[in-house]
Amino acid sequence: MGKEQKIRPDGLELPLVEEFFTIQGEGYHSGEAAWFIRIGGCDVGCNWCDSRFSWDPAMHPLTQVDDIVEHALESGARSVVVTGGEPLMWNLDPLCEGLKQGGLKTFIETSGAYRLSGAWDWICLSPKVNMPPGKEICLKANELKVIIETRDDFKWAAKYRRLVTPQCRLYLQPEWSSFSSVIPEIVGYVKQNPEWKISLQIHKYMHIP
After folding, report:
1. Element containing residue 203 per DSSP (H, E)
2. In a domain, 187, yes or no
3. Do the beta carbons of residue 20 and residue 74 sit within 8 Å?
4. Has residue 1 been placed in a domain?
5. pLDDT greater than 60 at residue 155
6. DSSP state of 150
7. Do residues 148 and 173 lie in contact, with contact meaning Cβ atoms separated by under 8 Å?
8. What predicted TM-score, i.e. pTM, was given to this entire model?
9. What is the count of structural domains for the chain?
10. How many other C-beta atoms lie within 10 A of the C-beta of residue 40?
């Protein structure tokens, strides 16, 4: 664990892991260019997480939101994806306000385990068994993305399908290390439940961040 640091509740500083311009590799906006902001901190603890380096917020420098916004505006991107870790551990109202004032679209990727803050053009909800999301974010989600590692995850997907709105886009995504074993099952499930689509992590195939 890193050295203890006090994170301000007003959201004017955030533990910044990394920020970069890349191609969205998953879900509805897959293939589109976006500026990514990865915020440190996560206690959901998924065993297959590919960004464990972000879990401990104390390992990452507290950064002024004004500086984070400035970098996003300078990137030339039209949209910003805020991810983690679990970004909703922190107050994201000031970050969203700054990004929107700069004319950028705001997207978030979250497990929904914490109260929603920030004003978002797109909410990608990826619920996790360890810390399930609340009803509020389910009703606001634009996209439901469920990671499939075992057959039990299909039951989890079906549960949250009933909790989101009819307008929410539905995606099943194979857990990367289990791809070969689960993709035939996902294909079969989508054939029987065509309201779902398959999300692949195309950035990993293209070897880009």
Report:
1. helix 202-205
2. yes
3. no
4. no
5. yes
6. S
7. yes
8. 0.92
9. 1
10. 29
Share above pLDDT 70 across residues of the chain, in percent, rounded to a whole number: 96
Query: What are 85-101's pLDDT values in tens digits?
Result: 899 999 999 999 999 99
Domain-located, residue 142:
yes
Q: Is the peptide bond before 134 cis (omega within 30 degrees of 0)?
A: no
Length of the chain, please?
209
Examine the pLDDT at 1 and tell me if it is beyond 60. Answer: no
Residue listed under structure tokens 């960004």? 51
- Does some domain include residue 61? yes
Here the CATH number for the domain that contains residue 64 is 3.20.20.70
3-state secondary structure of 167: coil
Phi, psi of 104 (to 5 degrees): -95, 145
Closest of 31, 45, 47 to residue 84, by C-alpha: 45
Residue 71 tokens read as: 């970098």
Domain that holds residue 115: 13-44+51-205
Cβ neighbours around 152 below 10 Å, total:
10
Q: Which residues are CB-neighbours of 42 under 8 A, at least 6 positions away?
A: 49, 54, 55, 84, 85, 86, 89
Burial code (b: 16+ CB inside 10 Å, e: under 16) for 100-122 equals: beeebbbbbbbbbbbebbbebeb
Assess contact for 149 and 173: CB atoms under 8 A: no
CA atoms of 135 and 8, how far apart (whole Å): 27
